Amino acid sequence: MTPRRGLLRELSANRIMFLMLLPVVVFFIINAYIPMVGIYYAFTKFDFNRSLFNSEFVGMENFKFLWNSGILAKLTVNTLGYNAAFILFGNVLAIFCAILLSEIRLKWFKKLTQSIMFLPYFISFVILSVVVYNLFNYDSGFLNTMLKAFHMNPVDVYNTPWVWVPLIIIFYLWKNLGYSMVIYLAAITGISEEYYEASKIDGANIFHRVWYITVPMLKNTFVVLLLFALGSIMKGQFDLFYQLIGNNGVLYNVTDILDTYVYRSLKVTFDIGLATSAGLYQSLFGFILVMTVNTIIRKINDEYALF
Amino acid sequence: MKIKDEKYAMTFRIIAYTVTLFATVLCLFPFLLIISASFTPNEVIIREGFHLIPSKFSLEGYKMVFRFPETVLRAYWVTGVTTVVGTALGLFFITMAGYVLQRKDFKYRNYFSFFIYFTTLFGGGLVPWYILMTRYLNLMDTYTVLIFPGLMTPFLIILMKNFIRSAVPEEVFESAKIDGANDFKIYYRIVLQLSMPGIATVGLFLALAYWNDWFLSSLFINDQNMYQLQFYLYNIINSIQFISQMGAGTGISLGTDLPTESTKMAMAIIVTGPILFLYPFVQRYFVKGLTIGAVKG
User: What are the TM regions of this chain, as residue ranges (chain B) (predicted)?
Assistant: First the structure.
């Protein structure tokens, strides 16, 4: 029997299950696989009046421009840098808070604080931009109101590029702390009580217990979260950057990432060829990165491999 | 020994309570600032800036928003429709897929899983997708384009698959099959009943994403009557900034009908209101969803 006949038989035997899967398959074909054809735009000079394959073919011109102008290097550094900071600080802070919270015995206090820390995750990034505006806007922002009250000079945050590096990281943490904390809290709850009992008998105090039992036991969760995050290290957080920075060109040098550049090229400067090239670069770079990391991890410890 | 131990425990507890309380205040503070500003008269904000407690109380901001209620209500309607329809459809598709993909006797489940997972590894990028939606499928200014792209994500399908696997024992499928139930019947009679907590979690993730979305509107919506709430708010904020910058630059005083600081804050509260209101009731589902094997597919 040929494999093809096997497939047909499988199709008729399990047609209900295939039908149930159909919407998802159609969704990903339209939403993800057909657009891959459009990668061709990256090699053309886009013309609104022509269809995809009639556009003028320019080879690697778009990439050359992106590379020679230094845009690509800057965007890559920014994207990777911010994501690395998000992953590092995000996890460390979440582990820290989760450990502290797990030691709190007052039930209502624990529940209430955890809920409030999780709250920022639920609001939209548009609201986040309102929050930032509220705090830092020059004329009436909370920061300048406070500074004026203490007779100090107001600061123009929206025209000071360097402060946005820590600010973006801080607001990322603000928005996502609750989310990763929940995951770590679950991991801590899963640690067997026996370890703690045994260490108590051995005379370990609470600091020892946290450092020698809880922290090492969280390694698994950390590695899994880290690998998951690596998968999107070239993407990510478009909403955060676009809502905080928007079209404020003064700040681009230190805040522009691949996602925002692609979006602006599409919606503001209408440079379809460049935008597609940058997008393709992002996609390929990310793909190669994940594949490499996954291969290495598989060699070191098979259990942690993503696939 | 014992006493020293207690001392350490005490120190640790003090640190724990202090840090947690501090973090909680930091998380809450911006919300309080917005709420306070929405109840402050505009000229007070202009004169004194934003404060934690309004020095003068007023409903002016909210009154301004509802002076021409049609646009806000319209945006509420569009957001509501997309959220409800998108969540319902998305849940239907995701649960079916999750169910089929965890069936051990479904031979091609790994191929399909990879077909779905691969889209997270590689894609055509934003632009080809945008051109497909606008030029080839002609979806500009439609409800379809606000709903379709958010129907599902690989993450939610994997999450659903894991939920169903842990909620429905393998033997149930076998005995139901022996009783003559077909695969769809097993799904809607048994699987759906048993995986309610999982469905609630995935549904809330979907609904939250639809409610908070501004990106699709910004890409695909030109018609003001089709603005979603978040995008409507986004436009208000940015038009105010734009106009006030223009005004400052040209010295031309612009009309008094402009949305003011307090209106903006009132609008922010109106947009987030349903989330803040529902949050206490639904957050435990998120916690549950993240706790049950959400991490690894």
Answer: 12-35, 75-99, 111-131, 143-160, 186-211, 265-282
CATH class label, B67-291: mainly alpha
Find where tokens 């073919």 sit. A57
With CB atoms and an 8 Å threshold, state whether B27 touches A116. yes
Please state which architecture CATH assigns to domain A61-304.
Orthogonal Bundle (1.10)
Could B126 and A275 be called an inter-chain contact, meaning their C-beta atoms sit closer than 8 Å? yes
Side-chain half-sphere of A17: how many Cα atoms within 13 Å? 21
Chain A contact for B189, CB < 8 A? no
* Residue appearing with tokens 């051990």: B104
Quick: pLDDT tens for B200-211: 889 999 999 999
- C-alpha closest to that of B59 among B273, B259, B262: B262
Residues of B187-224 as b/e, b for ≥16 C-beta within 10 angstroms?
beebbbebbeebbbbbbbbbbbbbbbbbbbbbbbbeee
What is the spatial distance between Cα A231 and Cα A86, in angstroms, rounded to a whole number?
Answer: 14
Q: What are phi and psi of B106, to 5 degrees?
A: -90, 110
- Do residues B150 and B209 lie in contact, with contact meaning Cβ atoms separated by under 8 Å? yes
Compute the distance between CA of residue A148 and CA of residue A130 in angstroms, rounded to an integer: 21
Length of chain B: 297
Residues of chain B in contact with residue A90, where contact means CB-CB under 8 angstroms, are none
- Are the CB atoms for A55 and A141 separated by under 8 Å? no
Chain A contacts in chain B segment 69-108 (CB below 8 A): 92-94, 96-97, 99-101, 103, 106-108
Does B117 sit within 8 Å of A14, measured CB to CB?
no
CA distances for B61 relative to A244, B45, B253, angstroms: 24, 11, 21
Mean pLDDT of B237-259: 56
ipTM value > 0.95: no
Phi and psi torsions of A56, nearest 5°: -70, 125
Query: Which chain A residues are within 8 Å of B24, Cβ to Cβ?
Result: 112-113, 116-117
Residue A241's alpha-carbon distances to A169, A252, A255, in angstroms, are 10, 10, 7
Residue whose pair of structure tokens reads 């107001």 in the numeric block? A154
Contact assessment for residue B164 and residue B102, using Cβ atoms and an 8 Å cutoff: yes
Q: Is A83:A229 a contact under the CB 8 Å cutoff?
A: yes
Report how far Cα A100 is from the mean position of its chain's Cα atoms: 25
As a whole number of Å, the CA-based R_g of chain A is 25
Residues, chain A: 307
Chain segment A94-117, per-residue pLDDT in tens: 999 999 999 888 989 998 999 999
Are B119 and A33 a contacting pair at CB < 8 A?
Answer: yes
Q: What angle, 0 to 180 degrees and rounded to 10, lies between the N-to-C axes of helices B229-250 and A125-136?
A: 30
Nearest to A117 by CA among B174, B30, B163: B30
3-class SS of residue A44: strand
